């Protein structure tokens, strides 16, 4: 047990030592170098995370590499976020200008480029699994889109970027310790027996309540300071308090469910003791998407 904790802690520290400088450089360098470093880093991140999932779909390596490369088209259509970017206007205005374009264009790209190619590869490979096709298609769209939004927040608002990471960390950590201390003492049935049998209702409830408090304190309480406010409307903070902790829990379960369907323990062994990138960024991804949608309100 102690060896496993030490291994996980060491791996996490090494991972942070690698990725944090890229996160900081992307934000602190407001010139073209900062943009270039950020785009390259996030696209590589996107390719690795996507490949981790689709590598289990039964297609050969060449087909999966082609699909991964096609998924990067989501990064460049539209590409207005990379041009003449200023940092003086409000986050809300940037969101309204940028997010709807990406959602609509991602749907178009997925329908005319990614989906037909994936269908063709599955057909010629004689793979009849609809489940693996759906997981592949989901990963090719969802992962680059989530990371593109994360890049946007990393680039223009480091505080929002930090909040998106802190919420899943608090929810996940409180669920672990809440379950360890109180698990099955009040509610005997497991929280999700078929997807994640070790999770408890006590841990889930504690994590949800602390996550709700966390959303309020981080995203709304500093409302008088423009540099540290995320949700500017009461409607936004109420929806955020209700749904973001829930999405953090569901994000973990969603990617655990995918692993169950393709019968693997971890997506890869990239991070010893933790698994792959999407084993660690599962909750963060759904919190990123959820925050984006709330900001559109």
TrEMBL record:
Pfam families: CTP_transf_1 (PF01148). Keywords: Cell membrane, Lipid biosynthesis, Lipid metabolism, Membrane, Nucleotidyltransferase, Phospholipid biosynthesis, Phospholipid metabolism, Transferase, Transmembrane, Transmembrane helix. It is an enzyme of class 2 (transferase). Pathway: Lipid metabolism; Phospholipid metabolism; CDP-diacylglycerol biosynthesis; CDP-diacylglycerol from sn-glycerol 3-phosphate: step 3/3. It is found in: Cell membrane. The chain crosses the membrane at residues 12-30, 36-54, 61-78, 98-124, 133-152, 158-182, 203-222, 234-255. It is a multi-pass membrane protein. This is Phosphatidate cytidylyltransferase. The lineage of its organism: Bacteria, Bacillati, Mycoplasmatota, Mycoplasmoidales, Metamycoplasmataceae. Belongs to the CDS family. Its EC number is 2.7.7.41. It comes from the Bacteria. It catalyses: a 1,2-diacyl-sn-glycero-3-phosphate + CTP + H(+) = a CDP-1,2-diacyl-sn-glycerol + diphosphate. One of its GO terms (molecular function) is nucleotidyltransferase activity. InterPro entries: PC_trans.
């Amino acid at each position: 047990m102690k060896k496993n904790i030490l291994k996980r802690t060491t791996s996490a520290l090494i991972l942070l030592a690698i990725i944090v400088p890229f996160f900081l450089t992307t934000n602190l360098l407001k010139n073209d170098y900062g943009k270039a470093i950020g785009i390259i880093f996030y696209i590589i991140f996107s390719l690795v995370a996507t490949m981790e999932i689709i590598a289990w779909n039964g297609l050969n390596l060449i087909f999966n590499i082609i699909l991964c490369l096609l998924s990067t088209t989501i990064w460049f259509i539209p590409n207005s976020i990379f041009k003449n970017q200023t940092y003086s206007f409000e986050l809300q205005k940037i969101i309204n200008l940028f997010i709807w374009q990406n959602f609509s264009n991602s749907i178009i790209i997925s329908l005319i480029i990614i989906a037909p190619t994936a269908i063709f590869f599955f057909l010629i490979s004689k793979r009849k699994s609809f489940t693996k096709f759906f997981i592949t298609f989901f990963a090719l769209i969802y992962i680059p889109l989530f990371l593109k939004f994360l890049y946007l927040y990393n680039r223009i608002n480091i505080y929002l970027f930090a909040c998106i990471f802190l919420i899943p960390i608090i929810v996940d950590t409180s669920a672990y310790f809440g379950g360890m201390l109180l698990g099955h003492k009040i509610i005997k049935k497991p929280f999700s027996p078929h997807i994640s049998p070790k999770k408890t209702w006590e841990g889930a409830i504690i994590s949800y309540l602390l996550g709700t408090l966390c959303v309020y304190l981080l995203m709304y309480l500093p409302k008088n300071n423009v540099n540290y406010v995320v949700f500017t409307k009461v409607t936004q903070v109420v929806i955020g308090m209700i749904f973001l902790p829930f999405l953090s829990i569901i994000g973990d379960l969603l990617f655990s469910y995918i692993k169950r369907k393709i019968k693997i323990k971890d997506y890869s062994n990239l991070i010893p003791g933790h698994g792959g990138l999407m084993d660690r960024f599962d909750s963060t991804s759904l919190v990123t998407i959820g925050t984006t949608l709330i900001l559109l309100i």
